[in-house]
């Protein structure tokens, strides 16, 4: 049995290569010019993607073929106050460069949306946010031009303690999502 | 999409049942399985988990000669009182025990290390695995091994 090992998001060897630099909503709103604030978010995201590429190059040097991307590549990407912002326009080339490197070197990459992404929740607003978050991860993989071999991994119940029985309707939700996210 | 067993709610068996039902591949987290199980050993579920990786969704865009290997997550408890928290590194013994159990009928496996020390944990684990070179573990590269059946 051939076993390949991988690691998650950050290196403890490559310095100053965080792929998860962020900005809080509080600092975002402190910037008076909203357009300028959005450009700043895009600059942070571009840096995160650049650091991701640096990490992939480090991985290649050590024959590491398995890697999980940071879910925080784009700060505030799914924030409710920024739904009019499409970060993928400005970041098109940055995402494409990461995906190209992955394909060229036959790497296995994935995302793991955080434990707030739970589809078996009885709370409609949590479900809605979870679906939005999952869609965001699919968009990132699409922007990288990666196919269905790059997958999003999620928990069913996440960290929230819920009934172990699959709530009514969950199967329908999953089936809908699987159809929608076939490529993920 | 893949679904993973978690450490508090859905056990590996429950997650497996949902994966079978939906036709999606299951990521087995052997640390979660250890702290949240139905009394089974992790390898007792493996042949069924392996089958979830043979479905159309699991193998979408993969080729027959290079199928997408199943994936597991591995981490070690931080301390005896913090069983669910992740330690800096990975203990080799429980992982190797699992790998040896499944090696006879699993051609390839990818292992995601979820440890605080990230890639350093990977390199340390590789060092630990190299101590088993006369006990069926062959080092293939800086980040891969062959576990002989």
Low-confidence stretches of chain A: none
> Going by CATH, what is the homologous superfamily of chain B?
Divalent-metal-dependent TIM barrel enzymes
**Number of DSSP strands of chain B?**
8
As a percent range, the share of helical residues of chain B equals 25-40%
Backbone structural class of chain A? alpha/beta
Q: Which architecture of chain B does the CATH hierarchy give at level 2?
A: Alpha-Beta Barrel
Whole-Å distance between the termini of chain B? 30 Å
Any chance you could write out the topology, listing elements then pairs?
The complex is a heterodimer of chains A (184) and B (149).
Chain A: E1 2-8, H1 25-30, H2 34-61, E2 66-68, H3 87-90, H4 92-104, E3 108-111, H5 124-143, E4 151-155, H6 170-180
Parallel strand pairs in A: 1-2, 2-3, 3-4
Chain B: E1 2-4, H1 12-22, E2 26-29, H2 30-35, H3 46-52, E3 71-74, E4 77-79, E5 82-86, H4 92-102, E6 108-113, H5 118-130, E7 137-141, E8 144-147
Structure characteristics:
heterodimer, A: 184 residues, alpha/beta, TIM Barrel, four-stranded parallel β-sheet, B: 149 residues, two-stranded antiparallel ribbon, 5 helices, globular
Word description of this protein:
The complex is a heterodimer of chains A (184) and B (149). Chain A has one domain: Divalent-metal-dependent TIM barrel enzymes (TIM Barrel), CATH 3.20.20. Helices cover 45% and strands 10% of the residues of chain A. Chain A has six helices and four strands. Chain A has a four-stranded parallel beta sheet, covered by helices on one side. In chain A, helix 5 (124-143) links the parallel strand 3 (108-111) and strand 4. Chain A is globular. Chain A starts with a strand and ends with a helix. The mean pLDDT of chain A is 90. Chain B is of the alpha/beta class. Chain B is globular and about 40 Å long. Chain B has a four-stranded parallel beta sheet. In chain B, 32% of the residues lie in helices and 23% in strands. Chain B has one domain: Alpha-Beta Barrel (TIM Barrel). At the A-B interface, strand 1, strand 4 and helix 6 of A face strand 1, helix 1, strand 6, helix 5 and strand 8 of B. Chain A: Pfam families: UvdE (PF03851). Chain A: This is UV-endonuclease UvdE family. Chain A: It comes from Paenibacillus pini JCM 16418.
């Amino acid at each position: 049995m051939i076993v390949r090992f991988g690691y998650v998001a950050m290196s403890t060897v490559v310095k100053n290569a965080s792929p998860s630099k962020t900005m809080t909503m509080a600092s975002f709103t402190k910037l008076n010019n909203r357009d300028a604030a959005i450009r700043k978010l895009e600059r942070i995201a571009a840096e995160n993607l650049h650091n991701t590429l640096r990490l992939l190059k480090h991985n290649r040097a050590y024959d590491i073929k398995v890697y999980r991307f940071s879910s925080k590549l784009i700060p505030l990407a799914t924030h409710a106050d920024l739904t009019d912002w499409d970060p993928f326009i400005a970041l098109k080339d940055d995402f494409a460069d990461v995906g190209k490197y992955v394909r060229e070197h036959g790497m296995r990459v994935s995302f793991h949306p955080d434990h707030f992404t739970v589809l078996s929740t009885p709370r409609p607003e949590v479900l809605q946010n979870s679906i939005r978050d999952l869609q965001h991860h699919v968009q990132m993989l699409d922007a990288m031009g990666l196919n269905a071999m790059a997958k999003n991994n999620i928990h069913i119940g996440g960290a929230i303690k819920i009934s172990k029985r699959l709530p009514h309707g969950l199967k329908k939700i999953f089936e809908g999502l699987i159809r929608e996210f076939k490529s993920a | 999409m893949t679904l993973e067993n978690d450490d508090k709610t859905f056990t590996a068996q429950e997650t497996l049942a949902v994966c079978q039902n939906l036709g999606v591949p299951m990521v087995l987290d052997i640390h979660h399985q250890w702290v949240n199980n139905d009394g089974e050993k992790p390898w007792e579920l493996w042949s069924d988990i392996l089958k979830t990786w043979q479905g159309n969704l699991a193998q979408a865009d993969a080729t027959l000669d290079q199928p997408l290997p199943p994936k597991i997550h591995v981490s070690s408890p931080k301390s005896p009182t913090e069983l669910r928290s992740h330690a800096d590194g990975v203990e080799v013994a429980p992982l190797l025990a699992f790998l040896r159990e499944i090696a006879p009928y699993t051609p390839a496996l990818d292992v995601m290390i979820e440890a605080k020390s990230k890639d350093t944990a990977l390199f340390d684990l590789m060092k630990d695995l190299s101590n088993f070179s006369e006990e069926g573990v062959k080092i293939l590269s800086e980040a891969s091994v062959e576990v002989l059946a």
